[in-house]
């Protein structure tokens, strides 16, 4: 039984009806012009995709089904069951897919459903154990998730001749199964790459995040809270970001959810996207090491100097700038608040805070980036470091586990709403010269 699937069985027909009306009423209306500059500039600002689970405002940041991060912290049930505790990604997934906040019982039912679906098929663990230790953890993750596709219910049913009206139900099986299996896959990658390969036994009495922490090798309840926050805030950032968009595009070919999310992970693995969290941490550690060698303190002046060295070398400042946001990312602020509460005296946190003081002015003076403010990746690494999670090459895997929740919530809706193959029109430069007046 699945409480979430039962709920979706009520919600999906209403959503289908809503979309039918939307098409009839607004189908011929314009969403705006597309300029040549936009076509050349990575389609920035072009509105051509529907993404129901979240919406990004350039000034205010992300809203998950209309809710800010502080709203989620108030309205979703805490994963630990303790008043004031962080909600977990399970509760968020219920909200993203159904549009409603779950009750504590509904959130727990989903946690239990994920536990029941978590067991890996026999070929995955030996495969991860055989990966070379120097294979990047994101490469390991996407390879393992691609190999997990042997389990796809959607692919098997489609081959048998699946009726279109049943797509979402088959997709549901794959989506919940892949989310359920990600913690053990990620923990195996972590423990095999950096430690002795031993993974703590799966503990069904814990919520998704706490069990994930145990399998990674962490048992501090404060770290569990950080993981819950981390998995919630990295989940969804509307549809245009590269990992969500890739998942949506690949899924639109009716590639199954395993193949779609593995493709999304490959997009997340780029340094302009999710890999930036690894890059930020490295930038901070390099900065520390550089000035230690020179016998200088890390302060506003030396950070400014290091930033200019980076920019003058033709590199970007990782963790700053954004394709849509034009203010400080509220996900940065949520992490800063966590740090102020749990680690106000942490050295790396102080460096991150000092970078925040000087970097916007440096970037404004540099004069290129449209957004001189920090994004989510600017803060996440130092929080992990505080709890002894030092392996920065693994950080993007945590981002990926979280992003699966958002990208797959919308993928489920894509199949429920019968969204078609995505195939925008491309043009050549000659076409522009000949046709654009
Ligand atoms: N440092 C230096 N230059 C920058 C930065 C930065 N942080 N951000 C943007 N620019 C440059 C950018 O490279 C471009 O230069 P050019 O004209 O030579 O090509 C110029 O400013 C205009 O770029 P924007 O229109 O402001 O930014 P765009 O939308 O193209 O790119 C990012 C957005 C996020 C890719 C860009 O800001 C960046 O490279 N930031 C650093 C990497 C990063 O933190 N990525 C993580 C984003 C969040 N996530 O998790 O995905
Ligand atoms: C994300 O979370 O996907 C990033 O902030 C990038 C984006 O939104 O484009």
UniProtKB/TrEMBL annotation:
One of its GO terms (biological process) is citrate metabolic process. Keywords: Transferase. One of its GO terms (cellular component) is mitochondrial matrix. It comes from the Eukaryota. Coiled coil: none annotated. GO terms for molecular function: acyltransferase activity, acyl groups converted into alkyl on transfer. Transmembrane segments: none annotated. The keyword Transferase applies. The active site is at 273, 322, 377. Belongs to the citrate synthase family. NCBIfam families: cit_synth_euk, PRK09569.1. This is Citrate synthase. It comes from Hondaea fermentalgiana. The lineage of its organism: Eukaryota, Sar, Stramenopiles, Bigyra, Labyrinthulomycetes.
């Amino acid at each position: 039984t699945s409480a979430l699937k039962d709920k979706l069985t009520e919600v999906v027909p209403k959503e289908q009806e809503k979309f039918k009306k939307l098409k009839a009423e607004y189908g011929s209306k314009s969403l705006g012009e597309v300029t040549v500059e936009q076509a050349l500039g990575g389609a920035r600002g072009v509105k051509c995709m529907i993404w129901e689970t979240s919406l990004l405002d350039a000034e205010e940041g992300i809203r998950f089904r209309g809710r800010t991060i502080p709203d989620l912290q108030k309205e979703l049930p805490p994963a630990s069951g303790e008043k004031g505790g962080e909600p977990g990604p399970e509760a968020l997934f219920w909200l993203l897919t159904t549009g409603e906040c779950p009750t504590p019982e509904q959130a727990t039912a989903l946690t239990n459903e994920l536990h029941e679906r978590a067991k890996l098929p026999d070929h995955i663990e030996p495969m991860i154990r055989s990966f070379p230790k120097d294979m990047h953890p994101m490469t390991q993750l996407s390879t393992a998730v691609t190999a997990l596709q042997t389990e796809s219910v959607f692919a098997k049913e489609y081959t048998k001749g699946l009726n279109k009206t049943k797509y979402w139900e088959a997709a549901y099986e794959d989506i919940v199964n892949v989310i359920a299996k990600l913690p053990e896959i990620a923990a195996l990658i972590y423990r095999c790459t950096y430690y002795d390969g031993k993974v703590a036994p799966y503990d069904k009495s814990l919520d998704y995040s706490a069990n994930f922490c145990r399998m990674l090798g962490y048992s501090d309840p404060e770290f569990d809270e950080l993981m819950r926050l981390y998995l919630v805030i990295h989940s969804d950032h509307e549809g245009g970001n590269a990992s969500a968009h890739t998942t949506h595009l690949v899924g639109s070919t009716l590639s199954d959810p395993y193949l779609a999310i593995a493709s999304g992970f490959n997009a997340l693995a780029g340094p302009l996207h999710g890999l930036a969290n690894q890059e930020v941490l490295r930038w901070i550690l390099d900065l520390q090491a550089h000035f230690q060698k020179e016998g200088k303190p890390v302060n506003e002046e030396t950070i400014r100097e290091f930033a200019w060295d980076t920019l003058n070398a033709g590199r970007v400042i990782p963790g700053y700038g954004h394709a849509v946001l034009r203010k400080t990312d509220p996900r940065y602020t949520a992490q800063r608040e966590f740090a102020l509460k749990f680690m106000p005296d942490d050295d790396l946190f102080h460096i991150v805070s000092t970078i925040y003081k000087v970097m916007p002015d440096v970037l404004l003076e540099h004069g290129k980036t449209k957004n001189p403010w920090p994004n989510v990746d600017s803060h996440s690494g130092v929080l992990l470091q505080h709890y002894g999670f030092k392996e920065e090459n693994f950080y993007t895997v945590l981002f990926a586990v979280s992003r699966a929740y958002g990208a797959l919530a919308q993928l489920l809706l894509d199949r429920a709403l019968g969204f078609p193959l995505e195939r925008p029109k491309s043009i050549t430069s000659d076409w522009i010269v000949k046709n654009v007046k």
